[in-house]
TrEMBL record:
GO cellular component: chloroplast thylakoid membrane
Gene3D superfamilies cross-referenced by the UniProt entry: Umud Fragment, subunit A
Entries under InterPro entries matching the protein: LexA/Signal_pep-like_sf, Pept_S26A_signal_pept_1, Pept_S26A_signal_pept_1_CS, Pept_S26A_signal_pept_1_Ser-AS, Peptidase_S26
Organism lineage string: Eukaryota, Viridiplantae, Streptophyta, Embryophyta, Tracheophyta
Taxonomic source organism: Morus notabilis
Name by which UniProt lists this protein: Chloroplast processing peptidase
TM segment ranges: 38-58, 82-104
Active site (record annotation): 62, 146
Residue ranges constituting the Peptidase S26 domain according to the UniProt record: 39-209
Amino acid sequence: MSFLSRPSSLSHFLIAYPSLRWMPCQSWGFLRWPGLDGFMRLLVVFLLWSMLSEIRFIPSSSMYPTLRVGDRIIVEKVAKSLNLLALLACLASASSALSFFPFYRKLVYTMLIASYYIRSPAINDIVTFFDPTQPSEDTEKNVFIKRIVAKAGDFVEVNNGLLYVNGIPQKEDFIAEPPKYTSNLARVPKGHVYVLGDNRNKSYDSHFW
């Protein structure tokens, strides 16, 4: 699962949150720093969070206009080596450490609730994944970022500039332009999802695979 780092919702949260509003000068308690114990807790959170997430840059226009070339995103690492116990450990540490920084608590909890360790991928989620057509022996893996448009068991086709899922045309006001290609009706296999780029005519995605 991906979290956009563009300023929209995050900046509004930081500006609107009461802890960050201007305070009278007679109250300087918010400038106090936590002691060694607090810094150790923050270090634990940082190490655990680095195991669960990473920052990536958008290299192409396949997700335009939602994501532009050069945008930075925070992505969650979902792998067999990382499990729910690691996420719960991060949550427990964050709950303790963020008591010193309450204005970050809501942001971190929101990210944890959205985690794929808590829920399954959903329609319209933006996800990153390795190129499924790349040989497994390649050492450098290509990473794609696309939008989920259908889940396992759904029937998908593109025709007359519209995406159809289970025979229903989808309303997509986030795409750059209607697709100029057509794709035959296909059923999404079990354990898979169907992904497309928002810039439909300039995206290497499930309609090729």
